[in-house]
Write a structure and sequence with these properties.
Radius of gyration of chain A: 18 Å
Structural class of chain A: alpha+beta
Distance between the termini of chain A: 38 Å
CATH superfamily of chain A: GHMP Kinase, N-terminal domain
CATH class of chain A: Alpha Beta
Number of helices of chain A: 6
Strand order of the largest sheet of chain A: 1-2-3-5-4
Shape of chain A: globular
Oligomer: homohexamer
Largest interface: A-F, 34 and 34 residues
Strand content of chain A: 25-35%
CATH topology of chain A: Ribosomal Protein S5, domain 2
Amino acid sequence: MTRIDGRAADELREVRITRKWLDHAEGSCLVEFGKTRVLVAASVEEGVPRWMKGQGKGWVTSEYEMLPRATHTRSGRESRKGKIGGRTHEISRLIGRALRAVIDYEALGENTIVIDCDVLQADGGTRTASITGAYVALADAIEHLRAKGALKGEPLKDSVAAISVGVVDGTPMLDLAYTEDSTADTDMNIVVAGNGDFIEVQGTAEGVPFDRDTLNILLDLGLKGCAELKDKQAAALAEPAAGK
Amino acid sequence: MTRIDGRAADELREVRITRKWLDHAEGSCLVEFGKTRVLVAASVEEGVPRWMKGQGKGWVTSEYEMLPRATHTRSGRESRKGKIGGRTHEISRLIGRALRAVIDYEALGENTIVIDCDVLQADGGTRTASITGAYVALADAIEHLRAKGALKGEPLKDSVAAISVGVVDGTPMLDLAYTEDSTADTDMNIVVAGNGDFIEVQGTAEGVPFDRDTLNILLDLGLKGCAELKDKQAAALAEPAAGK
Amino acid sequence: MTRIDGRAADELREVRITRKWLDHAEGSCLVEFGKTRVLVAASVEEGVPRWMKGQGKGWVTSEYEMLPRATHTRSGRESRKGKIGGRTHEISRLIGRALRAVIDYEALGENTIVIDCDVLQADGGTRTASITGAYVALADAIEHLRAKGALKGEPLKDSVAAISVGVVDGTPMLDLAYTEDSTADTDMNIVVAGNGDFIEVQGTAEGVPFDRDTLNILLDLGLKGCAELKDKQAAALAEPAAGK
Amino acid sequence: MTRIDGRAADELREVRITRKWLDHAEGSCLVEFGKTRVLVAASVEEGVPRWMKGQGKGWVTSEYEMLPRATHTRSGRESRKGKIGGRTHEISRLIGRALRAVIDYEALGENTIVIDCDVLQADGGTRTASITGAYVALADAIEHLRAKGALKGEPLKDSVAAISVGVVDGTPMLDLAYTEDSTADTDMNIVVAGNGDFIEVQGTAEGVPFDRDTLNILLDLGLKGCAELKDKQAAALAEPAAGK
Amino acid sequence: MTRIDGRAADELREVRITRKWLDHAEGSCLVEFGKTRVLVAASVEEGVPRWMKGQGKGWVTSEYEMLPRATHTRSGRESRKGKIGGRTHEISRLIGRALRAVIDYEALGENTIVIDCDVLQADGGTRTASITGAYVALADAIEHLRAKGALKGEPLKDSVAAISVGVVDGTPMLDLAYTEDSTADTDMNIVVAGNGDFIEVQGTAEGVPFDRDTLNILLDLGLKGCAELKDKQAAALAEPAAGK
Amino acid sequence: MTRIDGRAADELREVRITRKWLDHAEGSCLVEFGKTRVLVAASVEEGVPRWMKGQGKGWVTSEYEMLPRATHTRSGRESRKGKIGGRTHEISRLIGRALRAVIDYEALGENTIVIDCDVLQADGGTRTASITGAYVALADAIEHLRAKGALKGEPLKDSVAAISVGVVDGTPMLDLAYTEDSTADTDMNIVVAGNGDFIEVQGTAEGVPFDRDTLNILLDLGLKGCAELKDKQAAALAEPAAGK
């Protein structure tokens, strides 16, 4: 079976991570999974939210949003509607949880890092591209804090990457593009730490419920994809950042 | 190992489903998982949202919310804040997806069923109690449509139930109460169809990432719990409804 | 003349007050006037709003809201609309004023009690049932503060109850059910202290303006009803609370 | 006992009604009760709200708001806060109800009249001045519709006026100014039709509950005040309007 | 060429500035440019916004809004819509900038003056009338601060006035009325200091782009108009204020 | 005098216009004025807003927004605040007006083009870069409509470009970078049609008011800058678009 873009079922799209795409942000990258392009900015802010003050711990949070014409047809801006939609909320929360799972709050000290993931173009997998790129921007932001002597230890316990998997026309597939995702029977997003353990597994039956065997095949595919993304992240972080 | 309330690790809390708790709603129940109490109302509305008109299909959607003093300390009302929080959005969407997975839209005809899940008291598992009760209220609402001759077939393809599982102090457990949930390392919500297949699997590492074995143990526990809930649902639907 | 449910014109519906219906709230009850059911929770919060600080006085406030399917047909949630409607605002303010009229702020000390009245089912008289139940929940919340030694005296100066009266098809009636209320020419809500004095009188001509004699008859009916409610409240507070 | 501004207890402040203060509005006036100044505009709009269409009946509604510096110290604008406060809602609703009580919807035909009451300066009694002025603006707007031949009969069944009364330092008084109102024990707003019947009675115990005798004295005072206001309205409507 | 109201092309409408129209505000006026009427209130508030604290400097800001029936047909209230429109925002910001250009913040001390410009009736030029009247109210508010001994010097460096100019049917004109403004090809608002220098120039091609010569003619007209307004302002400030 | 980045006073920063940066949008570019980077997307939508229907004319509108970390320090998202700020509103309106000045609505037919300008990085001149890039994206969107045969003529009457000018430390300068803009005494944005006529002139005295000579020097500089931008636009549109 050949996929719409000629990939094998267990093959990632072309992944590009352009580090330090922004000049002002303490960490940033433009992450691309095929035509999906997300601009990630990591902002270091002194101090922590009020409810965390005085505990000597840091905080990492995230906000995700799509530009109105990221999609095939234009969507209205949430800022104009005056409220954030459920999908935006849900993905923002997912990204924040994924990153916090690899952070040692005490080592971070009372610093906050805000990760903004803005989807410039969407072709499926925007949340997984966001998490994958966010790790790179986060690592650079932490490096910035280290250079300033603002850390109390090593806050990054591990790396984190994420990928989507799903069953399309009966075939389990890795890294779904939009047209695949929109016809998938089962859709799963997997967030995996650098050591191969799970941080988040979110599987949804879009059509018919799925059985245990399907779940296992999808998990295998997802672990394979995240292992490859881990290498891409390491390569990006190893390069001297060229900026845009 | 004994749990805080004396249960075995694989034991549900006492589950009560009081059908037709409301007089006006086409379907309703008060569902209780221990101290967690959710009032579920299923409302039948003629017609479907504008974007679905003329396709001969129905629609099922859900809204979840907590009363301000459902929790140990009072929370402000989202209506006063002027916006819905991310958690409320996320759970509302989850309940809707869970129910739609067992619905045949064509058999439902151009009818909408709105499921309101309002948490009167929260002690962990409010989303899983909501889904479990929502199936019962949905079944009664569909019965109401059938009695009116408004259906085109049998819209309910299967039943649906949901339960939480997690790892607390190293022990995998079924149906976490609030104090267990708030200290769990891994937290998972599982939505299962009557035939035992998965509708949704959402596992999150709250502390350290979890491995594949842990995932499998949690899935086993969740399937056991949902099978028991399926029987409770059937028993509730078999009784002549006594109302409050 | 017989009323729709067989009552005499000056007869209350069956009134039930189930104390301590909630496990977490410092005071609570499920109050029922016939099919109207309101869940009342009294929450004790340390301190007072910023504008009252340092005066040594307490504060009592209230929020009222209806569940979407409390009514015969479903209403949209105010939290989703992003704003509170005029009716919700008005009733919330009325309940707060009614309770504050029997409170000695100095004796309460710098404590705040928030009374949440959530209408689970509506059949007329939701604001009067709310006030009547709120007194019971408030008394328990104050008892909680007393047990903690947090009071400076006796903050409850008297009890408070409320009832609706109106002219339906030319007949003055007590405690209108929804179908009566919606066809009433004159509609009045009366809030009365335990000593029989008025705390609030709100009469509205829905159809034709009403004369002084009618006003007096309605006031008589309302005073009779509130006297009976006062006994119900006392009985509820006298019982050892059984919880739900 | 002399009042702060030298009035007798049963004396109105100086009342001025300047008709047709605005050039564009179909009806308008600047109504003044002492230093309280409200600009009232009555706007005629063709048709009725969607939920009333096709019934051959008209609609009258009202919106009340205060300019930010109407008061002694500046208040923030509700438009900037993004929401209407409870007091604004409540008074808007009261004005609308008061006017609708004297309107024959069928005679009005399918026309809507919107009454805007904007408080330019506040010194107590803004809601009663609004209602009193609104009747004058409404009468002119109806005259405008009559001149166009857009009426089906005489929509104005009677006039309507409103006044505040209260007990200040133990003395029942008519038409409270701000400093009187803010120290009143009992505060009542009375809306009266031209024939002397009540349209709305809203009495509130601000300090201690009030008894039946006090209620009766206040009602007498209010009826006296409304009778005088009725004459002022008639005089204003009798004059050839001079505009500003 | 004769204008709609008989004016010459370079002639202002009748300008009236009624000082101290309000009793509570520290400075106020009703400013009229023909039928355009704006009520301006200057409110003195102790202290400055948080971001300016401790610098020993003051702040001047402004909010502009239109009453719903200021216009030929009624517009909905922004407070009901829950958001401020772009035009309201833009004009509020313009007025604030215009006033701040003639203020010496240090001499003002840590005081804030808020200028509210509420359009009671609109017939073109509401923003220029607002700025012109705002200067008068501001001068009185500063006088109030001076009388209290709250200033550190003379905060008013110069006066400020504003006028609209435009090209209507090929003719450059001063002070456009609404019907002129709505058909103008080019529309310009000019804010000028007492010394004749520009504070703001905002020219917009509504129809076809305009050339440098047209721009110069319009600037000449505007400077002429502002010089005349400066005299009107001085006259108003010279009079003993009569209030309304 | 040398500028911070070594430019001459009348020299533009490096301008880059990367056409068709997006795959889905009908027209798009990434426009850069030095470090300022704006992603512009032109979306073609069938039909026009309701208030324009049936007139046979088209519509062009624009929305501008900044990503939260476009700036030196992170700003909160307007979507989270639930409202658009004044600056965002003002710039969105300016861009729309600028483009509409060169559009023949009748030739456009009943089509709407929405121009989204999202600032990915801000270093001064974001509104002028937006307008300059928007013309290129608009031209491509119109080309798309032409290719579909959806036009009634040639809707583009001319090109449009924009640039900022200002007086910094006494020196008039072209195309201010952020550090220059934030210390400028006078700040002006000029929008110029391809034929050299003005579409919009917005000059503001940030410090002291400016005289007529300064105004003229700034206009000269702005016209020079816009003429150069016109060439850049033409060059971009002449190239076969390479996409990103």
